UniProtKB/TrEMBL annotation:
Organism: Sulfitobacter mediterraneus
Known function: Involved in urease metallocenter assembly. Binds nickel. Probably functions as a nickel donor during metallocenter assembly.
Record's protein name: Urease accessory protein UreE
Biological processes per GO annotation: protein folding; protein-containing complex assembly; urea metabolic process
Ranges for domain UreE urease accessory N-terminal: 4-68
NCBIfam families in the record: PRK13261.2-4 (NF009758)
Gene Ontology CC: cytoplasm
A molecular-function term among this protein's GO annotations: nickel cation binding
Membership in a protein family: Belongs to the UreE family.
Localization annotation: Cytoplasm
One Pfam family hit: UreE_N
Main subcellular localisation: cytoplasm
Record's keyword terms, sorted: Chaperone, Cytoplasm, Nickel
Alphabetized InterPro entries for the sequence: UreE (IPR012406), UreE_C_dom (IPR007864), UreE_N (IPR004029), UreE_N_sf (IPR036118)
Length: 149
C-alpha cells in the first residue's frame, strides 16, 4: 500500500500518537525528497521544501494527518573512551566529525583514518552497533556544513 506524501515535519515533543515508524541511519535522516518505507512495509514519499536534518523522535506528517515516527537505526560506530575525553573530543571536533557526546564515551561513525588518529593519541576504541544521534551544530539546530579556513 502507498501512503500519502509527507511535506511537513513535527519536531520531538510537538506531536503525540504515531500511525507507524520509519527507521533511518544518521546519513539517511538528512533529506529533502525520498521514497521511504515504514516498519509495516508501507511506502510513501517525503517531499520537503528544503533539505532537512531529521532527529530521532521527530514525526513525518502525511497529507492526511497521520504521523510517522522517525527512529534512529542501528549502525556501525566507534565507541571512544579514554582518560582525557575532553582532549579526544577536541581532536574529533577539529576534524568536523559528527560526534555523539555522552558522559563517559563518544560515538562516531566508523572511519579507519579517524580510528588511526584516535589510537595514536591514546584513546580506547571499540566497534559497536547502535543508534547514532550526534550533537547538532553550535550555530543552529541540526547539521552544519563545512566552512573555509
Amino acid at each position: 500500500m502507498t501512503l500519502p506524501p509527507c511535506r511537513q515535519i513535527r519536531k520531538t515533543g510537538h506531536w503525540s500518537k504515531a500511525y507507524d515508524r520509519v527507521s533511518l541511519n544518521y546519513d539517511d535522516r538528512f533529506l529533502r525528497r525520498k521514497r521511504l518505507t515504514t516498519a509495516a512495509a508501507e511506502a510513501f514519499i517525503i517531499d520537503l521544501v528544503q533539505t532537512t536534518s531529521l532527529d530521532h523522535g521527530d514525526a513525518l506528517e502525511l497529507e492526511d494527518g497521520r504521523l510517522i515516527e522517525v527512529v534512529a537505526a542501528d549502525e556501525d560506530l566507534l565507541e571512544v573512551t579514554g582518560a582525557d575525553l575532553p582532549r579526544i573530543a577536541w581532536h574529533i571536533g577539529n576534524r568536523h566529525t559528527p560526534c555523539q557526546i555522552e558522559r563517559d564515551r563518544l560515538l562516531i561513525q566508523r572511519d579507519h583514518v579517524i580510528r588511526d588518529m584516535l589510537d595514536k593519541i591514546g584513546a580506547t576504541v571499540r566497534e559497536v552497533v547502535e543508534p547514532f544521534t550526534p550533537e547538532g551544530g553550535a550555530y543552529g539546530h541540526g547539521r552544519t556544513h563545512g566552512h573555509s579556513h
